[in-house]
């Protein structure tokens, strides 16, 4: 049985108009073309769908069943068309975004929250990775967008400044007064350290910098949040390295001291592969994050 959508629309138009002539007019068909389509539908169905009366038509039992399902099919067709249009406009869908630790915990939530609130039919998958992994993933097309340290972006990727990401040493306030000078990673390696889990992108970044200097970092405990790390440092359990942006949330009992290391002065940027067109959803998210960064820079 083969009924296409124009067939179903014609059949319903004939029923609603009460005659083939009037229904053909509503469907923008000639009477001959409409009559031929209706006869073909009945041939395919193997049963009469309409009773031809002296004045008009009425559906048979089979015709009533067809009308019921035709309305459902056309309604679903409209929903499908509207949903696909939302995907095409970038107002419905799912975006995948790879970010480093600082972006995940500090800059991104404030930027992303209003966009998600304004687009309730879009979901975002956030994947935390090191900046080097993010650059490789964007180049390979694994994700369309990345938020990473500017130093990791290769020439094949487009980039746009997003936020500053300065790393500082976190010390108890009384010790920080004695260490007002800038510290180096070697200074911290000699102290008991509090850190993030080993799979954290920031932690992997610190380990890589330490390895390049021939240092081994030893951690007393690893915690999931900067707030928990701050509480440990405030109690005198050790020292840590955190984004400067996190200091405002860590209380008055700790203080950030500058790290005299070039890798501690980072700029976060949004990157994408300019050789591949972004999906409408990813393009909408990229535009929002770029606008947010511009407004934040002006404040």
Automatic annotation (TrEMBL):
Cellular component GO terms, alphabetical: cytosol
Residue ranges annotated for the HTH lysR-type domain, each copy included: 3-60
Keywords noted in UniProt: DNA-binding, Transcription, Transcription regulation
Gene3D superfamilies: 3.40.190.290, Winged helix-like DNA-binding domain superfamily/Winged helix DNA-binding domain (1.10.10.10)
GO molecular function terms attached to this record: DNA binding; DNA-binding transcription factor activity
Domain of life: Bacteria
Record family assignment: Belongs to the LysR transcriptional regulatory family.
PANTHER family xref list: HTH-TYPE TRANSCRIPTIONAL REGULATOR YBHD (PTHR30419), LYSR FAMILY TRANSCRIPTIONAL REGULATOR (PTHR30419:SF2)
Protein's recorded name: LysR family transcriptional regulator
Species for this entry: Pseudoxanthomonas winnipegensis
């Amino acid at each position: 049985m083969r009924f296409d959508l124009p067939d179903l629309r014609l059949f319903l138009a004939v029923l609603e108009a009460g005659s083939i002539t009037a229904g053909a007019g509503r469907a923008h068909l000639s009477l001959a073309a409409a009559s031929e389509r209706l006869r073909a539908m009945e041939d395919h169905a193997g049963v009469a769908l309409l009773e031809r009366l002296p004045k008009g038509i009425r559906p048979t039992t089979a015709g009533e069943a067809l009308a019921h399902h035709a309305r459902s099919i056309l309604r679903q067709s409209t929903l499908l068309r509207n949903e696909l249009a939302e995907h095409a406009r970038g107002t419905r869908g799912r975006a995948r975004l790879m970010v480093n630790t600082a972006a995940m915990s500090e800059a991104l939530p404030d930027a992303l929250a209003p966009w998600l609130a304004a687009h309730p039919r879009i979901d975002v998958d956030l994947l935390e990775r090191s900046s080097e992994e993010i650059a490789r993933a964007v180049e390979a097309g694994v994700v369309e967008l990345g938020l990473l340290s500017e130093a990791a972006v290769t020439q094949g990727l487009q980039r746009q400044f997003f936020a500053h990401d300065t790393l500082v040493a976190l010390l108890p306030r009384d010790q920080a007064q004695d260490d007002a000078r800038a510290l180096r990673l070697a200074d911290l390696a000699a102290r008991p350290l509090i850190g993030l889990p080993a799979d954290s992108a920031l932690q992997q970044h610190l380990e890589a910098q330490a390895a390049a200097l021939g240092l081994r970092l030893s951690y007393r405990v690893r915690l999931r949040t900067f707030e928990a790390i701050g509480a440990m440092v405030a109690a005198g359990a050790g020292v840590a390295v955190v984004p400067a942006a996190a200091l405002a949330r860590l209380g008055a009992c700790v203080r950030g001291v500058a790290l005299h290391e070039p890798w501690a002065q980072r700029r976060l940027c949004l990157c994408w592969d300019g050789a591949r067109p972004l999906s409408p959803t990813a393009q909408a998210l990229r535009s929002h994050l770029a606008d947010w960064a511009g407004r934040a820079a002006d404040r």
